[in-house]
Amino acid sequence: MTEVIKLEEVHKVYHTGEVDVHAVCGVSLQIMPGEFVAIMGASGSGKSTMMNVIGCLDRPTEGRYFLDGVDVSHLDRDELAAIRNKKLGFVFQGFNLLSRTSALENVELPMLYTHDHITSIQQRDLALHALEVVGLSDRADHYPNQLSGGQQQRVAIARALVNSPAVLLADEPTGNLDTRTSVEVMGVFQKLNDEGITIVMVTHELDIASYTKRNIIMRDGVVVNDVLVQKRLVAEVELRKLQQAHQAVKLSS
User: SS3 for the chain, per residue?
Assistant: First the structure.
């Protein structure tokens, strides 16, 4: 099986005046089709820069990046825009819905920028299907101000899915949501992943990362840990047991 995302010794350096900021430092990783990956780290760890590179929003300074088998490292601006629209779907923290546009019309927007010749009826059918996938087909005619935060994020997910991307990228998708709504949205992501959709998500929250299947931890521009979620959760349970045992010994002595 071919990797859907492959980074080879990727560096990203920002030149700010006389200072060079090394945001990503020689990262190599592979993400296979059907994975659900969380990229984690504190502020300044490089996770957002990594997402920008993976999302073809920025080019690596050094190294190579293959997206669904295509080397996108040196594509020009127009070529990057075309591959973003065809291969990637984006979900952001702030939803980014057009306020005077219905849910259905918001979902239709990415199809307006494709080179595929599809009719307006086909666009509507595809958008309705995407809304059905996220459980919002009955809200197609509603405007964003008529929807809850969780419903708005599900519209954003439907918009990201409508062009059948190779990868769904989510940048802090629960950052503006309360705990209960965050759980509902993560349930949508899990359902999509169970159906075979590859998802890469940036988050700083361990509890949100627990809904994924693999956690990539970054610090100072490098990957310091890459672990399956089940192994991480088992390790956390064992650590808590050790801490509790240590505390019990201290109290008894």
Answer: CCCCEEEEEEEEEEEECCEEEEEEEEEEEEECCCCEEEEECCCCCCHHHHHHHHCCCCCCCEEEEEECCEECCCCCHHHHHHHHHHHEEEEECCCCCCCCCCHHHHHHHHHHHCCCCCCHHHHHHHHHHHHHHCCCHHHCCCCHHHCCHHHHHHHHHHHHHCCCCCEEEEECCCCCCCHHHHHHHHHHHHHHHHCCCEEEEECCCHHHHCCCCEEEEEECCEEEEEEEHHHHHHHHHHHHHHHHHHHHHHHHC
